Design the sequence.
């Protein structure tokens, strides 16, 4: 059973990679492989355990990392960034979405890479039907 897959945190006003994002579609900017910029630092203005860059990289604190290790959550990667006590965070497990499910709506297809910009109505319908 999957309890949660999406981590919510505030959006930091920064980009992991400025300009052209490596390993991404040039048309829709869908990222196929995340590359951590070794020079990246977070904004000291805001503190928190979970934040996201404008180019959708998840950055977590040492507290979050310790919490995950203590609870023995498997298949997680923490890559240190230049800001002490913060990490780029990634899960090694990918949970597929049933794109044929009637509650899934995929929109804004990219003709260059065949991905979709947006999916909606997935979680709300599944939780309603889970009883």
Sequence:
């Amino acid at each position: 059973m999957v309890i949660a897959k999406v981590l919510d945190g505030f959006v930091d006003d920064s980009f992991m990679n400025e300009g052209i994002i490596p390993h991404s579609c040039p048309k829709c900017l869908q990222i196929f492989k995340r590359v951590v910029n070794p020079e990246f630092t977070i904004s000291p203005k805001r503190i928190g355990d979970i934040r996201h860059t404008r180019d959708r990289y998840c950055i977590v604190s040492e507290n979050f990392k310790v919490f995950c290790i203590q609870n023995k959550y498997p298949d997680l990667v923490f890559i240190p960034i230049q800001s002490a006590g913060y990490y780029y965070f990634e899960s090694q497990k990918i949970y597929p979405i049933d794109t044929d499910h009637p509650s899934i709506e995929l929109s804004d297809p990219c003709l260059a890479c065949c991905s979709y910009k947006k999916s909606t109505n997935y979680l709300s319908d599944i939780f309603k039907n889970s009883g």
Summary: The longest strand covers residues 86-91.
